[in-house]
Amino acid sequence: MAAPARKQESKPSAKGATNAATPAAAVARLESVLQGIQQVISGVLGFAVEANQPLMEAGLDSLATVELRNALSSKFGVDLPTTVVFDHPTSAALAKHLAGSLSEAADRSHAMLQKQAWRLPEEVAQQVLDTVQTVASLQVRSKCLGSQTTV
C-alpha cells in the first residue's frame, strides 16, 4: 500500500514578495509624516497651523516657502521642487505627497534587493527583505519625529 502523499506547506516566496504596505502601516506613515511637517512649519512660522489650513492664508510668504521647502528636504532626505508648497498648499496635502514619495523610494530599494535575492537561500532572502523594510519604516519615523539617531 502506498503511503499517502504529504501535503507541502506553502511558504511565501521572497522572490515574489511585494513591498505593499498594509493600510494600517500607510496610515501610520502618513500620520508620522504629517507630524514631522507640522513641526517644520511651526519652526518656520513660529506657530502651529491646522493640517487643512492653507499655508499662505496662515502667513507663509514667498521667502518662507523657500525656507519651508529646504527644511522639509533636509528633514526627510528628499529633493523637493521649488513649487512644492504651491502644489500642495496645506500640511495635510504636503504629508500625502511626501509619504507617497518616501513610499516610492522604499519600494525602489526593495525592488533592487528583490533582484538580488535569488542568490540567497529563500529563508535568508525573506529575512533580509523583511529586515530592510522594517529599517526603512524606522528611518521614516525617526526623520518625522526629528530624532538625530540613525538606524
Describe this structure as you would to a colleague:
There is one protein chain. 61% of the residues lie in helices and 0% in strands. It has helices at residues 23-45, 62-76, 84-87, 91-117, 122-144. The longest helix is centred in the C-terminal third of the chain and has 27 residues, at 91-117. It is elongated. The chain starts with 22 loop residues before the first helix and ends in a 7-residue tail after the last helix.
Q: How would you sum up this structure in a few lines?
A:
With 151 residues, the chain is mainly alpha-helical.
Specify the structural class: mainly alpha
DSSP helix count? Answer: 5
CATH class: Mainly Alpha
Multimeric organization:
single chain
Classify the beta-strand content into a percent band.
Answer: under 5%
How many DSSP-defined strands?
Answer: 0
Sheet with the most strands?
A: none
Task: Record the SSE blueprint.
Blueprint: H1 23-45, H2 62-76, H3 84-87, H4 91-117, H5 122-144
Q: What keywords describe this structure?
A:
disordered N terminus, 151 residues, mainly alpha, 5 helices, Non-ribosomal Peptide Synthetase Peptidyl Carrier Protein, Chain A, 61% helix
